[in-house]
Amino acid sequence: MTSPDTCQAGLEALLHRHELPSTYLNAIEHFHLPLASMLAERHRQSQRAHIWGICGSQGSGKSTLVQFLAHLLQHRFGLHTLCLSLDDFYLGRQERSRLSRLIHPLFATRGVPGTHDVSLGITTLAQLKRRTPHGRIAIPQFDKSRDDPLPRSAWHSVRSTFDIILFEGWCVGSRPQSEAELGHPLNELERTEDPSGIWRKTVNHHLHSDYAAWWELLEGLVFLRVPGFEQVHRWRALQEDKLRRQFLRRGEPVPPQVMSADQIQRFIQHYERLTRWNLDILPSHSDVVLDLQEDHQFCGLHFYDTQSAHR
Q1: Domain extent for 205
Q2: Residue of 128, 223, 110, 125 whose CA lies nearest to 173
Q3: pLDDT tens-place string over residues 38-82
Q4: In a domain, 309, yes or no
Q5: DSSP state for residue 55 in the 8-state scheme
């Protein structure tokens, strides 16, 4: 645990890094701090490693939220905290290419359930949960510029004695749909590239099986609730613009991985079905719901008892 001044200085450094205005400190006081306090209290009640899922649509600010939460947990509450991303468990291009040939061409694009190394994810979370004294764990890393995992020799090695692990990802904690709900295409991508439903049914099967086993390792779930799927496209575009500015500011050429407006439009259709489904059902299966307005500002924080049958 550090001094209040040191904690505040760290928060301001994070604001600068994420290009956020100083007014964001109000959100930290009213939303991040109460959430961090709850996570710290849950840990103290059991004195064991807690893995919390942080779920939200693309562009909702999961990674930013997690970094601020980790800072507060570490420096305000003295808890050893690790940030972990679902993105670092993506399968590489070669394996996804194999899946695209064997199952469906859409599995060449990383993102949906079925394009992650679930076995590695389960093993990593299980090791973190055990908190082996003096043990070390290699944390996987995925290089999006190469669209491949980094070699194991380049993974970060960390001590395995974390108090809290914040595991963020766009579909962390997602639940499967019924067969009836999978019957009709939802958008142009599904209509033209998955008319028979093989892709979406396979994604759903993964949510029923191996991903469900992955989510079983979570202590609880924090859900970032956006106003609607319509915001996802706009926020994703803002993400790409921010990334483009970073390259230009450094005087570097913008790489082809930074998407154009048309590329964004097609890309987010891969995520639309599950994003809309999550907005419908995850609030009733989450321990915490954080509400976001259209201007990306937080406007609500709700704590729930997930053991209760009714909200």
Answers
A1: 4-294
A2: 223
A3: 999 999 998 889 999 999 998 888 999 999 999 999 999 999 999
A4: no
A5: E
- Let me know if residue 220 belongs to a domain: yes
Angle of helix 33-46 versus helix 62-75 axis, rounded to 10:
60
- Would you say residue 308 lies in a domain? no
Domain CATH number, residue 290: 3.40.50.300
Domain count for the chain: 1
Residue 90 carries which DSSP code? B
Q: What's the pTM?
A: 0.91
Highest mean pLDDT among 20-29, 33-42, 127-136: 33-42
Residue among 113, 135, 111 at smallest CA distance from 124: 135
Query: Tokens 């926020």 appear where?
Result: 235
Close Cβ partners of 105 (under 8 Å, ≥ 6 residues apart): 193
Q: Are 270 and 111 in contact (CB under 8 A)?
A: yes
Label each residue of 180-209 as H, E or C: HHHCCCCCHHHHHHCCCCHHHHHHHHHHHC
Residue 169: which of 292, 287, 51, 76 has the closest Cα?
Answer: 51
**CB–CB of 288/38 below 8 Å?**
yes
Phi, psi (rounded to 5 degrees) for 52: -110, 130
| Count of alpha carbons within 13 angstroms of residue 307, beta-carbon side | 1
